[in-house]
Amino acid sequence: MTPFARIAIIGLGLIGSSLARAVRARMPGVALTGFDRDGAVCETVRRLSLLDSVAGSPAAAVAGADLVVLAVPLGAMRAVGEAIRPALAEGAILSDVGSSKQAVIDALADCVPPGVQLVPAHPVAGTEQSGPEAGFASLFMGRWCILTPPPAADPAAVARLADFWTRLGSRVETMDARHHDLVLAITSHLPHLIAYSIVGTASDLEDVTKAEVIKYSAGGFRDFTRIAASDPTMWRDVFLMNRDAVLEMLARFSEDLAALQRAIRWGDGEALFRRFEASRAIRRAIVDAGQDTGAADFGRSHPETPATTPGA
Amino acid sequence: MTPFARIAIIGLGLIGSSLARAVRARMPGVALTGFDRDGAVCETVRRLSLLDSVAGSPAAAVAGADLVVLAVPLGAMRAVGEAIRPALAEGAILSDVGSSKQAVIDALADCVPPGVQLVPAHPVAGTEQSGPEAGFASLFMGRWCILTPPPAADPAAVARLADFWTRLGSRVETMDARHHDLVLAITSHLPHLIAYSIVGTASDLEDVTKAEVIKYSAGGFRDFTRIAASDPTMWRDVFLMNRDAVLEMLARFSEDLAALQRAIRWGDGEALFRRFEASRAIRRAIVDAGQDTGAADFGRSHPETPATTPGA
User: Fold this and answer.
1) How far apart are CA A27 and CA A21, in angstroms?
2) CA A114, CA A178: separation in Å to the nearest integer?
3) How many other CB atoms are there within 10 angstroms of residue A267's CB atom?
4) What percentage of residues in chain B have a pLDDT greater than 90?
């Protein structure tokens, strides 16, 4: 028995389309509907046969669904919630995949009719790519999915959604929404902000050309450009919606960076060494926890023949 | 004809041992000697048969070599230079693989006897791993190697070293040492400093546990931990030796980050979106230039079964 019989996914980008693929792969009997406001995305989803049917509106998509997942940018949650409210079926679970959870609870508070349970969720998974063609079924395998049910949520609904994500290969954790927002501010939001920022700094230099930045990016910079290539709309909304936690983490980061800056200015090699040495333990723990590959260089390939011709 | 007949490598860690392997693979006739001050490293190099002979001292290693490559931390360059000076052969080229080049020129200025050419070099390649077992022959394939000959260097010596690195699969560029230091400050040194710093910030939080940081690191943080796992001694020396360029780039980065911080505080979504959108072009250019993989997520594997058991 799959936990749901009919699932509607609103928003069919990287995450929404990966969810559709994962459901198809793991729960082949489930009826899948969905909607995206971008007609080209709907066309692609039809062409790839990712859903049983692409609906003409959010309300039409959710009619009769016992699970509705909103996979839209945080700033679009309220409008979608209002559009689907009248069409939500009695007994349905309304969920999402947003990266900031208190914002989702606030946005959807007025969009949950009696008999519908709101159980927000955040699968901590993704890539820097966007759109339905970038999705894949195993995106959630081995990754954590954090559920942040409001205090009044029905435990049975929470358990049902936990079962759903577990069947997709995720590990499930339940957490208070505000605590989630603090945790993700440091593990996800601040890293993205910093990556976007340094890519901007590098682009704006006068003494170093953009061509030089690109050529010599293998020294470390290229690692930052990956997450700085993530969807700008999604990330704009994350920073606007999780403002306080991001500003708090950013203040701490800036203090710590200033301390390293001071150590460099005054030639305090011991302070630098101590800080640098402590970082290896965290990396090892992340690899040991199955949250990253232990292969050198993320397992990037180092073929005996270069990808492009030298000198080209 | 290989450009050199006998090569000595001082320092047999990730880079030195990779160089030995690359020479073996590409120039099998060349005699390879070397030295490392760590006896355990020498033992490993002997066990792996990476060199024809591991010498008992730096001076013994370089005797008779027509190319000497120092692959030691920047802070050790001068001491090694002084140790090998009396043993350097007439006509030899003295080079290195350090990440900051004016510092190398300054450190070795008094260690170059008449008849020896100093041609510093920086292969922009590496991984977060350290030691002779982490090295591999294809590390330099398709990567740039930057030569920073002092103005008085013999062009023939520079051409010979350029030929050498080209045969190892690298693309070679010649650059003024100070300009190199500025370019690498943004493409390599600042990214490492920021990565070390945010890993420190994440470790020191009170409201978010280290276990949570590790579990949810797939949201972006784990990308930073890779380069923050790099060799602490090497990186301490880079920041001490390229101080001015790093402080300059750090000041610019902090300004740009403060501008994003302000946009978040005041809810300026348009400013955030503009900055974020511009970053994608740089990522594309880096992939197009063959300096990173275009595969999503650095090509990390997403197997259908997770690496470790869910819930474990």
Assistant:
1) 10
2) 24
3) 12
4) 95
- Please give the Cα distance from B131 to A205 (Å, whole number): 35
Whether residues B28 and B164 share a domain: the answer is yes
Whether complex ipTM tops 0.90: yes
What is the CB neighbour count within 10 angstroms for residue A46? 13
- B69 Cα to chain A: minimum distance (Å): 20
Which CATH number is A255's domain given?
A: 1.10.3660.10
- Which residues from chain B sit within 8 angstroms of residue A193, using beta carbons? 257, 260, 264
Total count of residues recorded for chain A: 312
CA distance B48 to A223: 31
> Using an 8 Å Cβ cutoff, are B164 and B151 in contact?
no
Please state the length of chain B: 312
SS3 A37: coil
Residues B70 and B106 in one domain: yes
Residues B123 and B218 grouped into a single domain: no
pLDDT band (50, 70, 90) for residue B17: very high
Triad B236, B240, B246: Cα angle to 5°:
100
A31 CB contacts (<8 Å, ≥6 apart)?
A5, A6, A7, A52
pLDDT tens digits for A1-51?
899 999 999 999 999 999 999 999 999 999 999 999 999 999 999 999 999
> A181 with A245: CB under 8 angstroms?
yes
Give how far B74 is from chain A: nearest CA, Å: 13
Kindly report the average pLDDT of chain A as a whole number: 95
Of A225, A229, A290, the CB nearest to B308: A290
Q: Is the pLDDT of residue B309 over 80?
A: no
Using DSSP's 3-state secondary structure scheme, residue A32 falls into: strand
Residues 6+ apart with CB under 8 A from A22: A137, A138, A139, A140, A168, A169
Q: Residue B273: list chain A partners with CB under 8 A.
A: 232-233, 236
User: For residue A54, what pLDDT band results from cuts at 50, 70 and 90?
Assistant: very high
- B161 and B274 share a domain? no
Residue B110 lies in a domain: yes
pTM of model > 0.90: yes
Residues A247, A251, A254, A260, CA torsion sign: negative
CA A134 to CA A167: how far, in whole Å?
Answer: 22
Domain, as residue range, for A139: 6-175
The two beta strands, A171-174 and B6-10, are: unpaired
Q: Which two tokens stand for residue A178?
A: 């505000």
